[in-house]
Amino acid sequence: MSTLESTISMLRVLPEADVEVIFEMTKKLFEDKLSPFAPVGKEQILKDLDSSAHQIEQGKVSSASEAIQELRKRYGL
Question: pTM of the full predicted structure?
Answer without folding.
Answer: 0.45
